[in-house]
Specification:
alpha+beta, globular, Nucleoside Triphosphate Pyrophosphohydrolase, single chain, 4-stranded mixed β-sheet, 3-stranded antiparallel β-sheet, 9 strands, 5 helices
């Protein structure tokens, strides 16, 4: 985990324009520095969402459930390229076309470690076949499971402390793209009429 903390991230302004760089560790030291990130929502052909439990060694929000994969592009790297690489490294999923649903800006402090997330988060959505073979990196991921979008929403509302603080916002951005992005269509609430 130490090696990942020394990698560079791209600092950004409120509009997402690059303003410089610093290490992952520096970006997450209080009060936190706004930087570029990505969060991947993977859905399977049954419309289920993959969530992963973050590894115990994580410096931020360890053992909380989160989206399929998240991370930080290196300065100048696109969020989609960085996400494709992290999907392979964290959960062993390869060759998934990813599409940007939008951006979620947030700031959250991990009371346990004192570290801060202050992210300009590119929300990416991809579609995979039912039950793809996952190869979880135990240094990154403690577990994984598939949930229907409705079950995930209910559990997030009933047990928010089980989940990473960004997941609700990431899910909302991806859901907002359901009407214009076929990969996210399964996230549309049943009453929305989106097919």
């Amino acid at each position: 985990m130490v090696a990942r903390e020394s990698k560079l991230v791209e600092l950004v302004d409120a509009n997402g324009a690059a303003t410089g760089s610093c290490t992952v560790a520096e970006a997450h030291t209080p009060p936190g520095r706004p930087h570029r990130a990505f969060s991947v929502m993977l859905l399977d052909d049954l419309g289920r969402v993959l969530v992963q439990q973050r590894a115990a060694e994580k410096t931020r929000f360890a053992l909380r459930w989160a989206n399929a994969c998240c991370g930080h592009p290196a300065p100048g790297q696109t969020p989609i390229d960085a996400a494709a690489q992290r999907l392979i490294e964290e959960i062993g999923v390869r060759v998934v076309p990813l599409h940007q649903a939008g951006v979620y800006r947030y700031r959250a402090e991990d009371r346990r470690t004192g570290r801060v997330e202050h992210e300009y988060d590119h929300v990416l959505v991809g579609r995979v076949p039912v039950d793809p073979r996952l190869q979880l990196d135990p240094a990154e991921v403690a577990g994984a499971r598939w949930l229907t979008p409705d079950r995930l929403r209910v559990d997030l509302a009933d047990h928010p402390d089980r989940y990473a603080p960004w997941l609700g916002g990431v899910l909302a951005v991806a859901t907002g793209a359901a009407g214009r992005m076929p990969e996210a269509a399964a996230l549309a609430p049943p009453s929305s009429g989106v097919a």
